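Training component of the fellowship. As part of building independent skills, the fellow (R.M.) carried out the full modelling exercise for a liganded target. The chosen ligand was guanosine-5'-triphosphate. The inputs are recorded below so that the supervisory panel can assess the work.
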Amino acid sequence: MHQTERAIFDLRRGVAVVIDDDTGSETARAPSVLVQPVEGLPDEELAGFSGHRSARLVITRHRLRSLGVNTRAEAASLPLRPTASAVSAGIVLQAACADAPLDRELFAEPQPATVTERAALALMRRALLIPAALTVRLNDRQRRAIQTQIDRGELLTVPARAAEHCFELAAGLLKRVSEARVPLNDVAESRFVLFREPDGLREHVAVVIGHPEQWPDAVPVRMHSACLTGDLFGSLRCDCGEQLRSGVRTIEEMGGGVLLYLAQEGRGIGLANKLRAYTLQDQGHDTVDADQILGFGEDERHYCVAVDMLAALNIRKVRLLTNNPSKLRALAQGGIEVAGREKLYGQVTDENRRYLTAKASRSGHLLEEVLDAAK
Ligand SMILES: Nc1nc2c(ncn2[C@@H]2O[C@H](COP(=O)(O)OP(=O)(O)OP(=O)(O)O)[C@@H](O)[C@H]2O)c(=O)[nH]1
Ligand SMILES: [Zn+2]
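Fellow's submitted model of the complex:
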């Protein structure tokens, strides 16, 4: 696990890492790969990579779909053609995440990604980078050539299995770090309890409202994914800020409970990518298609952390404030009894109508009632 965390930091600062296949038998292993994130790729690094005959661009199935290629494979790798030696970092970035067709002169047919290449994309997602990497499949000679850098600690190696499952490593290991009484405008009695994931990368807050011994049998709970633009600045693009405040008030009115403020900005893709997605939306794409162009699925959130937070607060039965059926399913799968659901609407405005309509029609959010009323 430590290798994985350190690799994520290296990738975020644009430093390449090596991923080795530790799955399956020794004779059937995928080649090790040298991995460089496409995001923030300097042209000098690219020159080193595109000089390799086995250099590839690895992208997700979502990205491929946005390029008009349907595949069952989770990810694909596209060999750089030999003629691509003069390729620029901008062109690679465009192939990875722009609203533009793929340049077939530069990239050969997509092939299903190997386990090491899939692991590379898992690390990119965890690092909140665009999920696209330049890789070189290393042969034995190339692997030996970089061994000195590895031995000196200049180049990290990560086992594929740990990298591929880096989102699951936190399960059951969440740390309850600190807490304090924080009275809010609408709620006199509330405590903020901070939890940290074991790799130290993300922190989540449980806002405990009222007195736990007086809570209803099914505890009112809101799982709220962070939205800096909406929650803090009142962005008109979404209804998050309103949902956050009315969520807190409703929990108080229901006799107290918990609001989990989850570090899942942009449905789990991070603020940098959400801003990229907004720009694509301004070019005419809806919220789902914009994320797909960037290589993300329609919702990249994992809720095992929320399950762990509820367990740490001794909550086993909830009434969930949400319009999102996948949150209900995630809690039930995590062993929490979901006794009911409370709808939680923000206002439909001219600015957020398109966003809310796409959530209802494409992602199955239960918003028809409020959208119909606002027609
Ligand atoms: N990727 C992406 N994320 C967005 C966009 N607009 C808002 N978000 C994020 O979407 C998430 C919304 O979180 P929630 O309100 O908790 O969840 P929800 O899925 O809408 O479900 P409920 O509010 O519980 O019904 C936040 O993380 C926002 O940052 C967008 O256009 N693109
Ligand atoms: Zn929002």
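The panel noted the following from the submitted structure. The radius of gyration is 22 Å. The pocket of guanosine-5'-triphosphate (ligand 1) is lined by residues 224-227, 238, 240, 243, 264-267, 269, 274, 277, 287, 291, 322-324, 327, 355, 365 (CB under 6 Å).
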